[in-house]
Specification:
The protein has three helices and five strands. Strand 4 and strand 5 form a beta hairpin. Strands 1, 2, 3, 4 and 5 form a five-stranded antiparallel sheet that branches. It is elongated, with a radius of gyration of 21 Å. Helix content is 36%, strand content 31%. The protein has 135 residues and is α+β, with helices and mostly antiparallel strands.
Length: 135
């Protein structure tokens, strides 16, 4: 009986310690720029439009964004559904495929899922890193 009671107390103490660490992490301010914030969405769209083709019009489907913060440090790993349209069908398909996108030759529509990371700098700036599949 005494050993069982001691084991239960030990488990409760361990559980409280871990939950206190999570509370401390959240109150200390480990925040970053979330994947679905307007600033990040706009910057990600600009990067895609500049890197793939300036005549394209990529948009992020804001209802299809997946957010991970595995280490709870405010560095988010994101995955988002992308839609776009190009004025002509002359795109480097290798470039599209390296981002995880595809082109419908008949309609000139570009779609797919991209992965990107968001970071917040110490000076309250932020940046986005779009991952290529071939990395």
């Amino acid at each position: 009986m005494k050993k069982t009671f001691s084991a239960i107390l030990l488990l409760c103490a361990i559980g409280l310690t871990f939950s206190a660490c999570d509370i401390l992490d959240n109150t200390v301010g480990k925040s970053g720029m979330k994947c679905d914030s307007p600033e990040i969405i706009s910057l990600t769209e600009q990067i895609l439009n500049n890197q793939i083709r300036k005549e394209s019009s990529f948009t992020i489907d804001t209802s299809n964004i997946v957010i991970w913060d595995y280490n709870k440090v405010g560095r988010y790993e994101c995955k988002a559904k992308i839609n776009g349209l190009t004025k002509d069908g002359f795109l480097n398909t290798w470039m599209l495929e390296s981002y995880g996108l595809s082109l419908d030759q008949k309609t000139n529509k570009i779609s797919g899922w991209i992965k990107y990371n968001t970071y917040k700098t110490t000076t309250d700036g932020y940046y986005v890193e779009i991952q290529r599949l071939s990395q």
